[in-house]
Amino acid sequence: MDDSRRQKWALPPGHFSRIYRVIGRVVAARGLPNTDTRGKSDPYCVVKGIRSNNHMANIWITKAAQNTLSPHWEESFDYMVPPEWGLVELVGLKAMVFDADDYHISYQGNEDFLGGCDIDLSGAVTGRAMNFELELAGIPVNKAKGKKPRLTIVVTVYKEVIPKPEPLMDQLLESVRKMEYIREVVGKVVKAQALRNADLVGASDPQCIVRVILLNGEAREIHRTEVIKDNLDPEWHEGFHAKFEHDEQPLLLVFDIWDCDSPTKPAEEPQVEPAGRDTWTANPEVQLDDGTGRPSLDSAHLSDRPLEEEKEKPKLSCLDRLTKAAVDLREKVKSAYYLQKVERPSLTVEIRTRTKAEPMPLQCFMDKAVYVADEDDAKAVLKKPEAHWDRSMFSPPAELLEKGRPPRGELSGLQQIVFIYGTIRGASGLPAADDNQLSDPFCVVEALSRTAGKLFLHRTRVIKQKLCPEFNETFYMPIPQGFECNRIMFSIYDRDETFGAIVGSGVDPLEQDEFLGRASVDISYLMSGEKLVEDIPVSGSFVGSQVKTTTGFRRVATISIELSVQRRVKPCYGLAPEDHSAVIPRRTHKVSRQPYSVVYADPSQFMTEVPLEEQIAMNVMDAHSTGRLIKGAGQADWIQKPREAPEMIPESKPQILDVRRAKPQSEPPGLDFTQHSPVQRCDSLPILHSKFEQTPALFEMTQPHRGKGKLSIRQAFNSQSTQSIMQSLKGLWFKPMPDTLIHRKVEPSASSAEKPESPHGDMLLR
């Protein structure tokens, strides 16, 4: 039985298997293409981890092997998969080989791509070493020249079975129950190396300024080192110390190195030029060494991008501009023709922080909303000890601070992102938008809300003639209270230095630039203080020509970012109706056939009292169906034998027919009607009760005056009921024709006065 199948079957309920550790060794490569005009390539290998959501993480980068096409690195790596990944686990590896320019290596790579390959780890067996010798593909055909380079790498994975994590929303709500913030920062500015020379004569006079970025967006200076004369590798060894309150949470430490040309000027307005800047995240998890509180010695590269809060520099004189141009020209010539390793500027610092964890303010309102009905309730909410209004960055709702009785409502708590900060490391594999198969990229960072709102965060500088730019710029922004941020979008453009852009045509600069791609990351469930470090795929570009490459590997454009957020609980006051007892629940189901504007009535569906004459007719029909009608014929004086149906006169004018003139059909006495063959059903039957409802009025209209007065009600009832019963009995003998069912208006006839009176009156046939 296969080990992987046995392991899958052995998983207990509610658990899943994941790769938690990857150990490997990048051995060597052979047959690489040569991309240098002089000498051979200087290859180095980048190994990235592929997650199940197609995002990538940096695992390892080798050193650059100088002047060779068959490098032997023999470098090992050991990568621990963060448990915060959860179900979005590691599924594979991506190895790419680049040619180092000026001996500089980076995870973003460069334009000299020497090939890449993918390694699938989904079916790997835990603890078993796998030796791969893979073909490097994706190389432009004009550079490959028919070669098929290969890479040798050894990989061993280790898997574990752990319980499935809780839903993301439950984890998010649990993370905002406590607030951890930095109370004290202790550090030391040690030294800097390989700074840029900003002076035409001599060397720069560097000075380091340390600032801290607070949660409310304030940039506060906490230390300024002394100026060291004519030195590009200064060593300060100066310490700094700062304390903060609960409402002044520090998030970032910013180190600016300036060339101080006038040290005699006051410190408030130094006449300096930026020689570089480094930004640090004041996070104890990454700054403290193994949690013991010992100072950590860190070094990082500097960038030349000043922060947005810096004041505009005064306009330089003609001599200053000429000096700056001469310095730039000297650096370019030096980097282009000197065959020596170009060092990148770096800064070394020591940082130690002291943190404190406390309950999150207003967290009690997230668990249970509080109903406010009067002034006493409002005061009780504002004085609630577990709410900690004094430590909250949000003020109480205005409805609770009004004089008099507050509006009736409920006070609840809702978590919200209040601060976003991160770093744009760089991009890789961007499309070429210019004729020289290169681009001038820059990136725009924006925050998106749930209601399609957009908030500008940052815009990087333009990197000239690059497809793999390295920005290394930090951005941060306090989020407005009503802005519910749930996604960060990174848009990359190619800067076109057109005549209209230089002169200023009044058109949006982004509309003149070419779009290179866009990437976005969802931060709806990113916890407070957690750092997201990923390479996100970039897509959506329609510029650049598709370069024909060797098959087997496709290089995807990506952008490398680091992102963190800070969440707090904000109070939300919802107004309630004025009278809760009068609230009618909203109807969710409508009764079928319910009339709206037009009323339709069906009399046959109404429940009305049955008249006496109709009840008598029903009794007669019931007696006929049970055979009791013939047996009791001699006992009832109102039952007569059925007569022959009169012939109908086909005239349009209604007439009164005398049924007594029709000769009765001879029938033997005691005839049982139930023994006859059933009568064929007609299409429709007359409604019996329709006659009796109009009987009194109709009888008065049709009967002439007899003598001095009218017939009594008893006589009219006896006559009309007898006629109705006889007509009903006739329907049992003969099948009625359609023309006999036509309602005819009965008019009084002159001959009816000459007819002899009958004890049962005249019968009207309709």
From TrEMBL:
GO MF annotation terms: calcium ion binding
Keywords on record: Calcium, Membrane, Metal-binding, Transmembrane
UniProt source species: Cladocopium goreaui
Domain C2: 1-134, 163-290, 396-536
Protein name, as recorded: Multiple C2 and transmembrane domain-containing protein 1
Transmembrane among keywords: yes
SMART domains tied to this protein: C2 (SM00239)
Domain of life: Eukaryota
Gene3D superfamilies, A to Z: C2 domain
Biased composition (Basic and acidic residues): 301-313, 754-766
